[in-house]
Amino acid sequence: MSKAQPAAPPAIPPVGTGPVRAVLLDADGVLQLIGTPWRQALAEAGGPAFAERLLAEERPALEGRESLTDLLDRLVRSLDLRTTTAELLRLWRRATPDPTARQLVADLRATGYLTVLATNQQWERRQWMRSQLRYDGLCDLDAYSCVLGVAKPDPRYFEDVLRLAGVSAHEALFVDDSAANVASAQGVGLRVLHHPADAGGQVLRQGVVEALTRTL
Known about the structure:
Elements lengths: L21 E4 L6 E2 L4 H9 L1 H10 L1 H4 L5 H11 L6 H5 L6 E2 L1 H13 L2 E6 L3 H10 L8 E4 H4 L6 H11 L6 E5 L2 H10 L2 E4 L6 H14 L2
Parallel strand pairs: 1-4, 1-6, 4-5, 6-7
Antiparallel strand pairs: 2-3
Helix pairs in contact: 1-2, 2-4, 6-11
């Protein structure tokens, strides 16, 4: 008996068959796998107080107004941590690109959609992603928060990305694993998909195709 062939991935509706012209995709948890949940990873590396302070004070770094290194230096000193800034920086150098998710991006582009990397990142992590994970050229447009000067879930982030992409809110589908980011994008008028963190490219493709199909 011949083995059953694997099911073909769901087909992407061609651009023009519905209102969506651009697909905005988050990086961590969507296009790349992060493994240990972020808050847990922070707590394991520097303790619960470090995790709380980092998450509460990271916005200037995400918006490019402070370096991640300076932020970590300040927290190491104020919390009298035994770990060093260099050791903590390794947390931001962990992520595994998802080949199936990247293939989805390629297929979206081939089908005529404008693709946007819509991600919150500090200058240091942006450089690491570009040099080590080869994000340059993956999407048609890159929208790193540190470059734009505003970070999700601030509605201004989505407004800036829409201007950058040259599309209206109803013409864009935004995909993220953060409920807060998804809610903010929806408030601006974007179509949204709340993707389960680290669910993988197959789940991502199914969700994106279903979201695009619902707009037909």
